[in-house]
Amino acid sequence: MSETENEQQNSEQTEIPQEAEAVEAAVEPGEAEPLPEEVPGEAGEEAPAEEEAPPPAAAEGEGTEAPPEEEPPPIAAEKKKRKRLPRAQRRQRSKPKREQPAERKPITRLPKPVSERGRRQERRGVVVSNATDKTIVVKVDTVKAHRRYKKVVRRSTKFHVHDEQNAAKVGDLVRIVETRPLSKTKNWRLAEVLQEAK
After folding, report:
1. Beta strand ranges found along 108-172 (DSSP E)
2. 130 or 31, greater pLDDT
3. Which residues have C-beta within 8 Å of that of residue 161, sequence separation ≥ 6?
């Protein structure tokens, strides 16, 4: 029986340290337990703050992440939009004054440069109609090679031409010159009759 008693005593001794470890383990969580007891005694506003408190406590061991969590509340405050003020109540910025010269420079007018008028375009064509007074219709043929395909393309355009003396007749070869607008359709005038109709 002595052997069984010895075994019981040994088992009791081993149980005592296990119980001590359990008590110590119970004490460590117990340190965190008083915080929830304080929460009901205070107003309910700090409950969210204490919920946020454990992450900083966990971060205290690291030491680097604690400051960034403190910064976001000011950012939220900056996001508030300022109320727009009317123009009269806005802050006035003063403009820097320019130095004014003692005497004003006199205005000098430069003479207009003498330049020749733009070269007026000239065309040669055949008179198609002289039915209206002081106006003839001249058909001008143009022969051009196509830019890409190089085929010779013939085009003709009709111009209303001012003829002051009614000198030109149908079939005459005439030279016409560009001029100021004389009517809605007339921008050309008769320069000379090159060849009369046969």
Report:
1. 122-129, 135-145, 152-162
2. 130
3. 135, 136, 137, 138, 174, 176, 186, 188, 189, 190
- Name the domain count of the chain: 2
Q: Residue 151 pLDDT > 80, yes or no? A: yes
Q: What is the pTM of this model?
A: 0.42
Do 6 and 68 lie in one domain? The reply is yes
**How far is residue 145's CA from residue 153's CA, in Å, rounded to a whole number?**
6
Higher pLDDT, 44 or 78: 78
Percent of the chain's residues with pLDDT above 70:
57
- Residue 198 neighbours by CB under 8 Å, 6+ apart: 171
The first and second tokens of residue 169, run together, are 């007749």
Q: Please choose, from the candidates 170, 176, 175, 165, the residue with its C-alpha nearest in 3D space to the C-alpha of residue 197.
A: 170
Let me know if residue 90 belongs to a domain.
no
Distance CA 184, CA 162 (A): 12
How deeply is 59 buried, as exposed, middle or buried, from its count of CB atoms within 10 A (0-12, 13-18, 19+)?
A: middle
Residues whose CB is less than 8 angstroms from the CB of residue 46 and which lie 6 or more positions away in sequence, other chains included: 39
pLDDT, tens only, 85-110:
888 888 787 878 888 878 888 888 88
Q: What is the Cα–Cα distance from 135 to 188, expressed in whole angstroms?
A: 10
Residue 183's domain spans which residues? 122-195
